[in-house]
Amino acid sequence: MKQNYIINIGRELGSGGRDIGQKLSEHLNFEFYDRKLIEIAAQESGLCKEFFEKADEKASQTRWGSFFAMRYPFIGDGVVPSNFLSNDALFKIQSDVIRELAEKHSCIFVGRCADYILRNHPNCVSIFISSPHDDRVDRLCQRHNISKDEAEEMMIKADKGRSQYYNYYSYNTWGAAKTYDLCINSSLFGLDGTVDFIENFIKHKFQLK
User: Fold this and answer.
1) 12: number of Cβ within 10 Å
2) Dihedral angle computed from the Cα positions of residues 127, 45, 53 and 23, in that order, rounded to the nearest 10 degrees
3) What average pLDDT score do residues 169-191 get?
4) Please, what's the largest Cα pairwise distance for the chain?
5) Which InterPro entries does this chain map to (predicted)?
6) Domains parsed from the chain with CATH numbers
7) Handedness of CA 24, 106, 31, 54 (dihedral sign)
8) How many angstroms separate the Cα of 116 from the Cα of each of 46, 71, 191?
9) pLDDT tens, 20-77?
């Protein structure tokens, strides 16, 4: 039976983590999932994609919301009020999708606590990609054609949201070295060099040719 291999990528905004993951998927011929998970979760649950977009990498605000939400996790006729669909309920649906995909084929997942969700998978590697502050700002300015102040604000907001989300659902610490198998500064080798480094690491760990 064919073995599936999983790479989970956590990343700081502006570190190039998503681009690295996408290029790595092309090199290794793995399926790549980032925001595509939202579409799949919406299709499989029958819920509106907007519910998942609003909750994307955001921790639940209340425990009461979780209690009521779990009563209606898969209703798809559009009559469920949004306050009955907590982030916890949507996280559960997305977690089930991640597990199903990991059973079907080798994958690269970006964010969304996939490393925690798949922590018991036998062939799983978790990687965190960071980059110096100024490099991240410059990359965001170029990509989005925004000012440095706007890039700073975007970084602070995104990193805060991602860390709260990850820490809340995984009970681990976002970005902490002990949480991952490999932490790497993408500015050391550039994006392409980082892809090559991670590819060699993966091939060595899993004994891939």
Assistant:
1) 22
2) 40
3) 95
4) 52
5) P-loop_NTPase (IPR027417)
6) 1-30+107-209 (3.40.50.300), 34-104 (no CATH)
7) negative
8) 25, 24, 25
9) 999 999 999 999 999 888 888 888 888 888 877 777 777 665 443 443 333 333 333 3
